[in-house]
Design a protein that fits this description.
Layout lengths: L1 H12 L7 E2 L3 E8 L4 E2 L11 E2 L14 E4 L8 E6 L1 E2 L1 E2 L3 E4 L9 E5 L15 E8 L4 E9 L28 E7 L2 E6 L4 E6 L4 E9 L2 E3 L25 E6 L6 E5 L14 E8 L4 E10 L6 E7 L4 E7 L26 E11 L5 E8 L3 E2 L16 E2 L6 E6 L4 E6 L17 E7 L1 H5 L2
Parallel strand pairs: 1-25
Antiparallel strand pairs: 2-30, 3-8, 4-7, 5-6, 9-10, 10-11, 11-12, 13-14, 14-15, 15-16, 16-17, 18-19, 19-20, 20-21, 22-23, 23-24, 24-25, 26-27, 28-29, 29-30
Amino acid sequence: MKARILSLAILALASPATAQEIFPATLAGHAYLPALSLLAPPADAPRDGWISGKFTGVGRNGVPLSVPGDTGGMHGKRLTGISLPFIGQPLQGFSGFAMDKAEDGSVYVLTDNGFGSKANSPDTMLFFSRMMADFETGKVDIKETVFLHDPDFKVPFRISWDGTDNRYLTGADFDLESIQRIGDSIWIGEEFGPYLIEADLDGRVKGVYPTMMNGKQLKGADTPGISATSVIGKDWTVPRSGGYEGMALQPGTGLLWAMLEKPLLGEDGKSEGDFLRVLAFDPAKREWTGDSFKFKLAEGATAIGDFNFIDDTRALVIERDNGEGEPSLKCAGEPAADCFPNPAMVKHVVLIDTASVDADGYVRRIGQIDLMNIADPEGRARITTDGGEEGRFSLPFFTIEDVMRVDDTHIMVAIDNNLPFSSGRKLDAAADNEVVLLSVPELLAAQ
């Protein structure tokens, strides 16, 4: 009882933007798509698409499976057991769930730009898929994959495969991170512009919309036209990889609310604060409304992963730090193959109330669950976790980028496995495309 009284006292002292309750989560299902899952490009795509990842090292390397993947300097350069370049296109990590499902019940899911930057992804194709996770068998079934293309020249700049007939889009053109379906259109939030992209259900681009805020176009480090002579804080204010990581479709209003992944930069080139801006777009009018609110990050969080409404005003947001791996295996000294130098600490699904915004523009955080502390009393986990413990399930991944409500008591969460660079569940193996079903009745009922 004393612990409960203490926690309520702490909540009472917290600011309205961060005051919240911690709710329990229980693993109700676990499924995954193997990390090395590849697709054949469309028959009419350039032959360049048959070998992907040729530019992830120094210069060009067209020899398939010749360069071992590793986790990079931040995570100790541990080998992941999968090598580049790939034969075909990597299905790799899921980077957003659409709230409205397809007619057969499958979920529209997005795959991001490829290998993390414009420079290393000109041979990776952009697409969305329809996915179904079978939690009884543990398998993830990809029902359909739709490749984005721009034969009508809707993209307002030169694309990587500009001179081809079908003009398929690649990771050198856009970094896709969030997705919603509205009728016969797919809407995608991306990070390079940041832009909103409208396509039909066959992947044909119908429009590309730059971000307007306070009467000016919001630009990032990778917006076409930004160069080495551009002035940070003046010519561009969105940090690299800081565009629309989450974009939620609001029931009732039909508005798209696009959430930036990272804080904007001020005139001095420094972060404007520990909050993210969320901007409203009217897809019927195809224009920004000017409405917005702020999402305050928890201490230790650096970015968000996804954003979806559960009713007319309440929504789920994934927030995270940059860590991966179980804290129990944190390196005591120099990075090594048997430890995580920067383990996962802050991995949350947060419930917010968009109808409750304070005088400073901050949306109210109702409560959250801890994705590093999920109860698994029935042993539903299908992959053991290095450094884990019996009865506890976790998502110790760098990028957790998908969340949606399933029913009154369950949500579904999935990861972006950054193939072949992330390996949070294992010390020495690339992360699979994991999809988990969580029982969270208290969170979903919270007001």
